[in-house]
């Protein structure tokens, strides 16, 4: 019973040290949080503004995204009103003001919608690269960013060319040279797909010039496979998994201390070709249509934010059957012919533990605006971000486990345990709350 209370209080109140309450990021690892600027335009509880951001859970913030002006090869704002003009200050300056809290704030450029064609053309010319780099330095200085995150998705693909691989090296090398004077950080988000890695990235070379490499270890599978498969499996028989990607990058020469493991705060959705005879079936491997269903806030086929998933499970528990796939370490939920596979707290914590075992630089979150940031599904907001920091703040390297982390996965000083025991005596009512909370998380 005592350990039950300790686990609950730790989740409810956060990590401690001998001096009392501490900030959530009491660790030496990187926690890079992408903030999707377009999340502000989502409907209802999904609308996320910078006022909703709790930066204490992050060490680095990346504002996503700026774009590339194909007419003159300069960096540009994709949403000038929101980025520059909103509230008379703009989100760029709102974000960079958070530097005062000790965070590093970077500007991301690129992303899925930008594609690869224009970046390929820009990087193919020395003059074009110089123009882009000069405009980027000026842009970062104007809005007081700490650096740039390069999200060219993906060199050699999506309209790119065979020569992108070498030109990507030239681009990051020249950016690094230009950034030295201003002490700007330079990071890049890279694919987790081995074929794209081989086509687009000279891993040993780009590792020389990048401060961190953000590995987008998600979207391994989706409705496009016409089969229910994990979005971000820890391990997988088809070798499309977090473990396979990280081991491959290490073998290719990426320094562990520069690799940042990407974590998905969203799930992939599927519509089965037929309703299962029982909702208790493990759906992994079942045939599906080529397009998944939408979430109410993100409104994107085949995609649901964690906040959308957990709200659906809370509001309509009678409609959904939840489960866990042991092999891939993936959570899932089934409602008739609808399936969503996603990372819950358990899956996220297991991946953070893996990053620690591999001595990686830390973890990256895509994206913080789809955590349960309003606390609609739990006793506190940001349950996934909180769980990440709990694992990182535990200063022992955990062994690989296949059960849900509990109170034994976080070690507390003896005087804190004693203090908690006193609190338990006074607040026995927390037992019922804890049981309710545990039910929501399972």
Summarize the structure.
The chain is an alpha/beta fold and 442 residues long.
Characterization of this structure:
The protein is an alpha/beta fold and 442 residues long. The protein has a domain of 285 residues: Alpha-Beta Barrel (TIM Barrel), CATH 3.20.20.80. The chain is 34% helix and 19% strand. It has 14 helices and 16 strands. Strands 3-4-6-7-8-9-10-16 form an eight-stranded parallel barrel, surrounded by five helices. It has a five-stranded antiparallel beta sheet with strand order 12-11-15-14-13. The protein has a two-stranded antiparallel ribbon with strand order 1-2. Strand 13 and strand 14 form a beta hairpin. Helix 11 runs parallel beside helix 12. The longest helix has 18 residues. The radius of gyration is 22 Å and the shape is globular. It starts with a helix and ends with a helix.
């Amino acid at each position: 019973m005592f350990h039950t209370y300790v686990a609950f209080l730790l989740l409810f109140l956060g990590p401690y040290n001998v001096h009392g309450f501490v900030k959530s990021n009491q660790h030496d690892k990187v926690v890079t949080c992408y903030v999707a600027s377009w999340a502000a335009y989502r409907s209802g509880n999904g609308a996320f503004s910078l006022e909703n951001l709790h930066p204490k859970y992050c060490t680095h913030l990346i504002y996503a995204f700026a774009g590339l002006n194909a007419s003159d090869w300069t960096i540009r704002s994709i949403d000038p009103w929101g980025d520059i003009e909103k509230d008379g200050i703009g989100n760029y300056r709102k974000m960079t003001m958070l530097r005062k809290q000790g965070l590093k704030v970077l500007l991301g450029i690129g992303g899925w919608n930008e594609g690869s064609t224009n970046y390929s053309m820009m990087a193919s010319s020395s003059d074009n690269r110089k123009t882009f780099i000069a405009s980027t330095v000026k842009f970062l200085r104007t809005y007081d960013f700490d650096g740039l995150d390069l999200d060219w998705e993906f060199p050699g693909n999506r309209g790119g060319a065979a020569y992108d691989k070498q030109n990507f090296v030239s681009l990051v090398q020249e950016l690094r040279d230009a950034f030295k004077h201003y002490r700007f950080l330079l990071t890049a988000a890279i694919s987790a797909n081995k074929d794209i890695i081989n086509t687009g990235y000279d891993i040993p070379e780009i590792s020389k010039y990048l401060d961190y490499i953000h590995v987008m270890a998600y979207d391994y599978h989706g409705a496009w496979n016409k089969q229910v498969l994990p979005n971000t499996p820890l391990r997988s028989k088809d070798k499309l998994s977090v473990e396979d990607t990280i081991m491959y990058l290490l073998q290719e020469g990426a320094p562990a201390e520069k690799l940042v493991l990407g974590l998905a705060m969203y799930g992939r959705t599927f519509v089965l070709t037929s309703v299962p005879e029982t909702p208790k079936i493990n759906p992994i491997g079942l045939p599906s249509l080529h397009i998944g269903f939408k979430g109410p806030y993100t409104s994107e086929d085949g995609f649901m934010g964690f906040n959308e998933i957990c709200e659906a499970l809370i509001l309509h528990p009678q409609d959904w059957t939840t489960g866990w796939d042991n092999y891939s370490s993936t959570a899932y939920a089934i409602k008739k012919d609808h399936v969503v596979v996603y990372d819950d707290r358990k899956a996220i914590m297991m991946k953070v533990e893996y990053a620690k075992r591999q001595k990686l630089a830390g973890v990256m979150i895509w994206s913080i605006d789809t955590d349960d940031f309003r606390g609609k599904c739990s006793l506190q907001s940001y349950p996934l971000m909180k769980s990440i920091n709990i694992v990182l703040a535990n200063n022992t390297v955990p062994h690989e486990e296949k059960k849900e982390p509990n109170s034994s996965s976080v070690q507390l000083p003896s005087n804190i345990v004693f203090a908690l025991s006193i609190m338990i005596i006074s607040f026995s009512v927390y037992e019922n709350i804890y049981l309710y909370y545990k039910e929501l998380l399972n």
